[in-house]
Design goal:
Low-confidence stretches: 741-750
Radius of gyration: 67 Å
Helix content: 40-55%
CATH architecture of the largest domain: 2-Layer Sandwich
Number of domains: 5
Oligomer: single chain
Strand content: 15-25%
Structural class: alpha+beta
Largest sheet: 5 strands, antiparallel
Shape: elongated
CATH topology of the largest domain: Heat Shock Protein 90
Strand order of the largest sheet: 2-1-7-6-5
């Protein structure tokens, strides 16, 4: 079916009308939506304003129903707002108290009936809030039917501020009254000067100090407590303080109650109104300060006498004092104390002088020691210094934040300690290495120390001694090994005497194994006692043998003495007889005088008798000297005449040998000696020199005087340039007739040298001989 153009137009118009109508409807709906959104936004804004407003509304209807926001519920202590007025008092810390609710309900009923507004302030129990209730009859547009609109205000802060202000005012009034009373009752003089510097107010102490009757009379008379200073009156000084608006403090002297006192005076400007002043009596304080200064000086003088170094650093870590030992230890000069050097600088200077330990990180080490100032406890360290010095350093904190540094040189003490340890170890090693058995007992009888031999000597075990047994236990153990067990008490008595009575005792006992022990107790300086035990079994046997040998030797000495006496007679008598008969034959007393060969035979007999007599005399004298039986009769002898006589006796032998002899010395060199024996000693030495010196040789005899440091009174030196002797030959010549190891008598050159040495030693002198082969011999006699 085809549509006509008119139908199409009509359809188009219809669609256009429909579109316009739809657009109008959409526009109206959009406008309403916009207005609704604006209204909702306005409602939210109003709700927010109510939420942050200082007052919260509460609507109370006639039937008691209430409406209010959750904010008010929280103020009253509820989680949500109750539905009725009577539910505002639930108890258990929620809502109002019953009497508070009753008062609020009465106010609301009155307002609902008479439209009269009301105000009421309440503080809910258990809450710190103060609430103000302002009620009025609600507008009919808000709630028709006579409902009451109550605005609730939280004025907690305002109430607290008002309460604080009231309390502060009350306190200020009380403080002012107390201040006035305090000023009046103050023990120190106080006053106030007006801007014209005249006294306007004084307290009772001021009145008493100036000796006035009352404060009014003091003000009227303008009686000043203080005297003028440097031509300025107290008022002028106070004026200067007022003009400068600065507090002025000074110490002055004033007469109070007839005594001269030191006062600390303060002038305090009070704005431009005047100047307040007060005076504090510091006389006792000044006396204490003077006493303290004297005490400090005495203490520092005492510290200078100590051997320990002491230095004091103040709270600012600066040196304020160091005694003499401290300055010597660390090499401090006078400028160190006068400049009050810091602790860090002190450590740095000490390190430069080598008076601190060698450390890897010195700055860190120094910071650690500076930290001593903040430590509550005393710090102590050992400082090993270069060169072997050891210091004990103690840092003691002071109440004022300072530090006292104590330095003690313990080098000698450590050396003594090391020496003591060494001595203890040496003592232990020494005791263990001794043949004697030793034990040290304490005063209570317990064994403190013993050596290794002690246990074996008494037949004890080392484990038993390790228990440090008491004296009785030890004696019981020893008694088991003794032949007579009762002798153990004797050992106990020796120990008690050494430890308690402080005296030594000893004894002897025998063991069952056949050994004999000798023991002794010795008191020690430390209060202990020493028990020393020695095994004398072998020594007893040796002692017995020695006694027997001694008796044999005594008998041998007696036989020897008798033999020497007998031989002296037996040798000399035949020789004298032979010599006498030979001389008679030569002189012709037995007949005709002999001549020719017979005379020569008689001369040979006389020479042999003389030589044999001399040898017999030497042998007898040597034997008597060795036996200690040689008679010595001392007298004062001049050496030069004696030596001259000895030389004259050998003059023919010297000339016959073709020798020269020089005798040097002066008269007056006198000694105490036996003339005959000393002459024989020098003669034997001279005979050996004549025999050992070849023809053309020289012999020198010299008498010397002693020096100041010598301990001999005279010296005889005999030198020759003969053939001399080797050391071996000289030793053999000096041995004389001594037997060798096998008991045989070796052949010697003569008895002159041994006899000379024996004779010199019998006089208390010494004979020394020096000889070299081919260089001669020197003999020196030193006489006392």
């Amino acid at each position: 079916m085809e549509l006509t153009p008119l139908a199409l137009v009509l359809i188009g118009l219809l669609l256009a009308a429909w579109t316009v109508g739809a657009a109008v409807v959409v526009l109206r709906a959009s406008a309403k939506t916009t207005r609704m959104r604006a209204l909702q936004k306005s409602m939210k804004r109003m709700q927010h304003l109510l939420d942050v407003a200082p007052a919260v509304p509460m609507l109370v209807r006639v039937d008691g129903r209430v409406e209010g926001p959750d904010r008010l519920a929280r103020w009253l202590g509820f989680e949500k707002m109750p539905g009725y007025l009577s539910e505002l008092a639930r108890g258990k810390g929620e809502g109002l108290a019953p009497e508070q609710l009753e008062a609020l309900s009465e106010k609301i009923r009155t307002t609902q009936k008479s439209a009269a507004p009301f105000q009421l302030a309440l503080t809910p129990p258990g809450s710190g809030r103060s609430l103000a209730f302002a009620g009025a009859l609600a507008d009919p547009q808000v709630s028709p039917g006579g409902a009451a609109l109550v605005w609730v205000f939280d004025f907690t802060e305002s109430e607290a501020e008002l309460s604080r202000l009231r309390t502060a005012a009350t306190r200020a009034e009380a403080d002012f009254a107390a201040l006035v009373g305090l000023i009046e009752a103050a023990p120190m003089p106080m006053w106030f000067r007006a801007s014209d510097m005249k006294l306007q107010l004084v307290n009772q102490a001021y009145v008493e100090a100036v000796g006035a009757a009352s404060a009014e009379k003091v003000v009227a008379a303008q009686a000043e407590l203080l005297e003028a200073e440097n031509g300025r009156s107290p008022a002028e000084i106070a004026r200067a303080s007022l003009e400068a608006q600065e507090k002025n403090e000074r110490i002055v002297a004033a007469t109070i109650h007839g005594e001269r006192r030191s006062l600390k005076v303060s002038d305090l400007p009070l704005g431009r109104e005047g100047v307040a002043g007060y005076a504090i009596d510091i006389e006792e304080q000044q006396q204490v300060e003077r006493a303290f200064r004297a005490y400090r000086e005495a203490q520092r003088a005492m510290l200078d006498q100590l051997s320990v170094g002491v230095a004091q650093f103040d709270g600012n870590e600066r040196l304020v004092f160091a005694n003499l030992p401290f300055t010597r230890l660390f090499g401090l000069g006078a400028e160190a104390i006068s400049e009050r050097i810091a602790f860090e600088r002190f450590l740095a200077d000490a390190r430069e002088r080598g008076r601190t330990p060698e450390v890897r990180d010195f700055p860190e080490w120094r910071r650690e020691h500076v930290g001593w100032f903040g430590q509550p406890a005393t710090q102590e360290e050992a400082w090993p210094l270069p060169g072997g010095t050891h210091l004990r350093i103690v840092g003691h904190p002071m109440p004022d934040g300072g530090l006292v540094l104590i330095a003690e040189d313990r080098t000698e003490q450590l050396a003594l300690s090391a020496t003591r340890d060494t001595l203890l170890r040496t003592r232990t090693a020494t005791l263990d290495s001794l043949f004697e058995a030793l034990a040290i007992f304490a005063p209570d009888g317990s064994v403190q120390l013993w050596n290794r031999s002690f246990a074996g000597t008494w037949g004890l075990t080392p484990e038993f001694l390790d228990t440090h047994p008491g004296a009785q236990e030890l004696l019981d153990a020893i008694a088991e090994n003794l032949v007579r067990p009762a002798e153990a008490e004797q050992i106990g008595a020796v120990v008690r005497a050494a430890t308690l009575d402080r005296r030594g005792q000893g004894g002897r006992t025998e063991l069952k194994d056949g050994r004999t022990l000798r023991f002794a107790g010795v008191p020690l300086p430390d209060g202990n006692g020493l028990l020393t035990v020695l095994d004398i079994t072998d020594s007893q046997k040796a002692e017995q043998a020695l006694r027997e040998r001694a008796r044999a030797l005594e008998e041998a000495d007696a036989v020897k003495a008798r033999f020497l006496a007998n031989m002296s007679y037996e040798f000399r008598t035949p020789l004298t007889t032979i010599g006498g008969y030979a001389e008679m034959l030569k002189s012709g007393a037995a007949g005709e005088e002999l001549d020719g060969a017979a005379g020569e035979y008689v001369d040979a007999i006389l020479a042999a008798v003389e030589r044999l007599t001399e040898q017999v005399e030497n042998v007898l004298d040597l034997s008597q000297s060795e036996a200690g039986l040689l008679p010595i009769t001392k007298e004062e002898i001049d050496l030069l005449p004696l030596l001259t006589e000895v030389v004259r006796e050998r003059e023919q032998a010297i000339i016959g040998a073709g020798l020269s002899l020089d005798l040097k010395g002066r008269r007056g060199r006198k000694v105490m000696a036996d003339r005959r024996q000393l002459a024989r000693a020098v003669g034997n030495l001279l005979d050996n020199a004549i025999a050992a010196t070849p023809e053309g040789g020289r012999i020198v005899i010299e008498i010397s005087r002693p020096g100041e440091s010598d301990d001999w009174s005279a010296s005889i030196v005999m030198r020759d340039n003969g053939s001399g002797m080797s050391k071996t030959d000289l030793d053999r010549a000096l041995d004389g007739l001594k037997p060798d190891d096998e008991g045989r008598i070796e052949k010697r050159s003569g008895l002159g040298l041994p006899l000379a040495r024996q004779l010199v030693e019998a006089h208390g002198g010494t004979l020394s001989i020096e000889s070299r082969k081919g260089a001669g011999t020197t003999a020196t006699i030193l006489l006392p």
